[in-house]
Amino acid sequence: MQHKTRALVIGGSLAGLLVGRSLANHFDHVTIVERDFYADLPAPRKGVPHSRFPHSLMLRGQQILEQFFPGLRAELVAEGAIAMDSMKEIAFLTSAGWTTRCSSDLQLFTCSRDLLDWAIRRRLAAFPNVQFLQGASVTGLLTDAEHTKIVGVSLHRHGDSNPQSPEELYADLIVDASGKASHAPQWLKAVGYEPPHETEVNAFVGYVARVYQPPANLSVDWKLLFVPTAPPQRQRGGVIFPIESDFELPERGCSGSPNTRWIVSLIGGDRDYPPTDEAGFLAFARSLPTPIVAEVIERGTPLTPIYAYYSNENRLRHYDQLSHSPAHFIVVGHAACLLNPTYGQAMTVAALEAVTLDQFLQHHSIDDLNSHTRHLQQQLAKAHHEAWMAATSADYRYRNVQGKPINAATWFTNWYWDQLMELIVDRARVYRTFMEVLHLLKPSIALFQLHILSQVVWHQLNKRSS
Ligand SMILES: Cc1cc2nc3c(=O)[nH]c(=O)nc-3n(C[C@H](O)[C@H](O)[C@H](O)COP(=O)(O)OP(=O)(O)OC[C@H]3O[C@@H](n4cnc5c(N)ncnc54)[C@H](O)[C@@H]3O)c2cc1C
């Protein structure tokens, strides 16, 4: 009888779910092991405390989701996700002023992270070869007798009467998607492999968030408002991010419902952490270069406490560079590439990694993993490279950033970015390319095409002569 192929994913958050979707195309059985129990409706859970913060899914990520789960966008909008024209309906205050606003086909949706995960989980659960093992924590990796490959995991289920004797689960491919606190480096060490070396860039960015019922009678011409930080001059920023109405409400509506809620979030870099007490929260908002965020805090109805997330470093674990790679084991998502979340790229990176895995498995058999796992991990590293460069280059602008010293390429990138910020205030074509790069639809090299480069140069010359 032919061997049934099995894949196992550690962690059933966004990266684990999307990787699970790819694996479902290629394996007879896919098991997603998740420490938490999922709620029946969208709701925060212990393993994803960050779900209370704004989660913008970039357009590239939205495209991939739609390919993986056709019709998902429509389902989300029916559940109350907010559809918007990203060039017309987002108010974006750069250090040079508000960006130009015009109609475009760059159609975005926003919703809570809880709704997004719930909708994806619901679709994935409909795959007959995908199984969720909830309430189970992976505690280690298992190797074959020769220590040439990873063959499974040890785990314990919550409520186990004897947690000292863990269960063992075997699979042909094991994927670690257990997030920032992944224990894969320790697990590898315990079975005789070297752990990966790490690169960390930390700008000591703090993030706080609270959900509001928008104030009645407040008339605004945007659906989402974004005031990014612009270090070193401006280390504070904020966002007003629309999400669906509360699932508990009997009269919930679809997109654009009057019950749409706003997550108001404040950001501070260089250890200028936004406070979580009422007065400090408001005072921080008042220090932003637009009064609207403070006005919403004063006039809106708070629906939650103020939540803080003060640990927003970037960290790359170089699994692609291990001299002795563990075959049949890969690492994705925040477990491999942790990104400062204020740039909103990590979920899209997880989607890109899932596509990379799918493409790899289209061209390789499962036996190829004996010799090609390292190559696969290198492909995954390419999928997060652009986002890593963008996040760390931006974080290098903070005065007290910790990491390797800034090089000439990063300095130039940041200088060029400043020039673009001045151009996108009134040049729609440049703004469109900027948005396409920001949303990972195009590589950053698109910002250096001749028509943009020449405008940057002219703009510089004009500034110097005036
Ligand atoms: C404050 C904040 C704001 C963010 N905003 C954005 C944004 O705007 N846009 C964006 O794209 N991304 C954003 N992110 C990133 C995003 O939330 C995810 O963290 C990211 O997509 C990576 O997800 P992940 O699945 O790798 O890890 P996580 O989301 O951290 O999930 C890890 C999962 O693994 C489970 N787990 C852990 N250990 C085990 C174990 N031993 N056994 C079994 N299960 C285990 C956990 O319970 C959890 O479900 C933000 C993150 C933070 C912290």
List the helices and strands and how they pair.
Elements lengths: L5 E5 L3 H11 L4 E6 L24 H10 L3 H7 L3 E4 L4 E5 L2 E2 L8 E4 L2 H13 L4 E5 L1 E8 L6 E8 L9 E4 L2 E4 L7 H7 L7 E4 L4 E8 L10 E4 L8 E8 L17 E8 L9 H9 L5 H8 L1 E2 L4 E3 L4 E4 L11 E3 L5 E2 L7 H18 L5 H27 L12 H16 L4 H11 L11 H16 L1
Parallel strand pairs: 1-2, 1-11, 2-7, 4-14, 11-20
Antiparallel strand pairs: 3-6, 4-5, 8-9, 9-10, 12-19, 13-16, 13-17, 13-18, 14-15, 15-16, 19-21
The chain binds flavin-adenine dinucleotide.
Would you summarize the structure shown here?
It is built from 12 helices and 21 strands. The chain has 466 residues and is α+β, with helices and mostly antiparallel strands.
Helix content: 25-40%
Assigned CATH superfamily of the largest domain: FAD/NAD(P)-binding domain
CATH fold category name of the largest domain: FAD/NAD(P)-binding domain
| Outline | globular
Text of the CATH class of the largest domain: Alpha Beta
How much is the average pLDDT? 94
Any ligands, ions or cofactors bound here, and which? flavin-adenine dinucleotide
Percent of residues in beta strands: 15-25%
Structural class: alpha+beta
N-to-C CA distance: 80 Å
